[in-house]
Design brief:
single chain; 10 strands; 7-stranded antiparallel beta sheet; Serine Threonine Protein Phosphatase 5, Tetratricopeptide repeat; 27 helices; 5 domains; TPR-like_helical_dom_sf; alpha+beta
């Protein structure tokens, strides 16, 4: 009988490899009739049922572990199953136990790191993965994931080191070579990145991702014709490549080419069997560009054939909200949340509607749910603060302590410059040359102005490096002076160390302004004023071009409150929490106002 069971188990394993789960389960159940506590048969039954019947699979997983509680392989499989069914806390405990029993189980460590990454716990994942490298986990997938997570926490130099280490082991690995080019782009080495990508394209001419990255780099270089050609090439190879569509239409919008704007979506839909994702991506662009009637018509047509599809419902709620039809928007959002009850975006937008309709406590209950999933989400914190202010809750003053958290940074003039003004005048000449777009960006707060692309601080230009170093020193002084408070969403994350998570430049023209917004990718934000027209002055009663804090993006009328205004001056740098609502008054002069904003993340 023993030989028969061994043979049946081998066959069951083979059947699972061939995706013949039902047959594998039948074999294992036959074994269990003779031995109900056969741990491996129970485990194979669980693996065979995890897709068809997750509830039954869970029972078999637990029974197999009752029979063999210290089997790291069983623990790892159960952890994978739990992670796939969003029971993350239990999955993590299983991964930890499996690794305590078998630290060199690289598959378990890798899957655990994937779970940590899905929870945005990138630092923990990096630590876990890096510990596996000395234990022999030198597969390309480990280096690839380390690169990805290092980029997520803005550790680009570390990411590059992992990339080079991986390539020394496997120099022909496609994913690592692609990531190498991506990193060079992030580190402002576009020519080197292009050379790598062109070499890759010769070997893999049908790779849409290569064409896409080439297009993005040409966009960074402001070679827009070449960028458009490469992005169209990516779409021709993969008609449903949404990132390529988004990049192409962003380029067309910002360069004022309305004739071609959104055409790529229509052309691609004719080439795919299920065009829903393309329709929805076009709707998103239509809403961003304020073409609400066209968006509404598409969504109405889509609803007929895709009833109760949550993304359709969500975009319908956005259109209704933009039209002030809040009850209709709420109805759509509630239906969407029935399908995806923990979706952070849905929770935030539903809470925003409750704020608009003065149902602040209902809004707070939804924001509390969202914060459990994303405790560092700056947008959730911003709406929470808004509710507290409107309810007269003292926690608002605790969170929005402008006297403590909004500070001017005193930059030192870099070596070789007599004054900071001399340095800023020279930097201004460099930065103004980067503003070549014709239209405001489609996805930012800028109105009647332009914004540079990419990470400005990745540039190797000496002036930008000098500015970044001066700013870094001033920010460090700010962090060193912050008090401690383990409950406060700003203060609890202060490690005393930081990286720049984003950096760019904005040029506002006549009547230009920033709509009220927050910085979702930040923790702290800084704005440095590079060019301030003479019309912006303390004596101006209209406060043209001034920075203002406190007003939300919800246009609540007399319920809005400006809690602080700042008159910009050349060379001034202002630091503030990224969850602060802020915007600017329209610029009433023909001379541009140029700023250098950036976001900061703790490390």
């Amino acid at each position: 009988m023993h030989n028969s069971i061994s043979s049946m188990l081998n066959k069951a394993r083979y059947l699972l490899q061939q995706n013949a789960e039902a047959e594998a389960v039948k074999l294992c159940q036959a074994i269990l009739k003779h031995d109900a506590s056969h741990a491996e048969a129970l485990q194979l039954c669980a693996l065979g049922l995890k897709h068809a019947s997750p509830a039954k699979a869970d029972v078999y997983f637990r029974k197999s572990l009752q029979c063999s509680p210290n089997n790291s392989y069983f623990l790892g499989n159960y952890a994978n199953f739990l992670a796939g069914t969003n029971r993350n806390d239990l999955a993590e405990s299983m991964y930890k136990k499996a690794l305590s029993l078998e630290p060199r189980n690289h598959d378990t460590a890798f899957n655990y790191a994937v779970l940590l990454g899905a929870q945005h716990r990138y630092k923990h994942a990096i630590l876990l993965l890096s510990k596996q490298l000395p234990l022999g986990a030198e597969q390309a997938r480990f280096y690839s994931l380390l690169i990805t997570y290092s980029e997520k926490v803005y550790q680009y130099e570390d990411a590059l080191a992992y990339c080079m280490a991986g390539l020394r082991i496997d120099s022909s690995n496609f994913q690592l070579r692609l990531q190498h080019a991506q990193l060079l782009r992030e580190l402002s080495e576009p020519r080197e990145a292009l050379a790598l990508l062109e070499n890759l394209r010769e070997q893999f001419p049908k790779s849409a991702e290569i064409h896409y990255l080439i297009g993005c780099i040409y966009y960074d270089l402001q070679q827009y014709h070449e960028a458009e050609t490469a992005l169209n090439g990516a779409i021709s190879l993969a008609p449903d490549f949404l990132d390529a569509h988004k990049a192409l239409n962003k380029l067309l919008w910002e360069n004022g080419d309305e004739r071609k704007f959104l055409v790529s979506f229509a052309q691609a839909r004719a080439q795919v069997s299920n065009p829903l994702r393309l329709w929805l991506a076009e709707v998103e662009h239509l809403i961003s560009s304020k073409h609400l009637t066209a968006a509404e018509q598409i969504l109405s047509d889509l609803e007929k054939s895709n009833q109760q599809q949550p993304d359709i419902l969500y975009f319908q709620s956005l259109v209704s909200t933009s039209q002030g039809a809040y009850e209709q928007a709420l109805a759509k959002l509630k239906l969407a949340r029935k399908k995806r009850p923990s979706h952070t975006r849905y929770l935030i937008d539903e809470a925003a509607i409750y704020i608009r309709t003065e149902q602040y406590k209902r809004a707070l209950s939804l924001l509390d749910l969202a914060l459990k999933a994303a405790p560092d989400n700056q947008e959730i914190i911003a709406y929470q603060a808004l509710c507290w202010r409107l309810l007269g809750n003292e926690q608002y003053d605790w969170l929005y302590n402008t006297e403590q958290f909004v500070r001017p940074l005193q930059l030192e003039a870099p070596a070789g410059y007599a004054t900071l003004t001399d340095f800023m005048d020279e930097l201004k000449l460099l930065i103004s040359g980067l503003h070549n777009a014709k239209n405001q960006p489609i996805d930012q707060s800028v109105r009647n102005g332009t914004q540079t692309v990419g990470r400005l601080f990745s540039s190797q230009h000496p002036l930008i490096t000098q500015y970044q170093n001066a700013l870094r020193n001033a920010i460090q002084c700010y962090l060193d002076r912050l008090p401690q408070d383990k409950r406060h969403p700003l203060l609890r994350r202060n490690t005393g160390k930081f990286n720049f998570s984003g950096s760019w430049s904005v040029q506002l023209l006549r009547d230009g302004y920033h709509s009220n917004h927050i910085h979702p990718a930040g923790w702290l934000s800084v704005c440095t004023y590079l060019e301030v027209p003479p019309a912006i002055c303390r004596e101006d009663p209209a406060k043209s071009g001034w920075l203002k804090f406190g007003e939300s993006c919800l246009a609540l009328g007399d319920k809005e409150s400006i809690i602080k205004t700042v008159c910009p001056e050349q060379g001034m740098s202002i630091i503030f929490p990224s969850y602060y609502w802020h915007g600017t008054n329209p610029l009433c002069t023909d001379k541009p106002r140029i700023t250098l904003p950036c976001d900061i993340a703790p490390i």
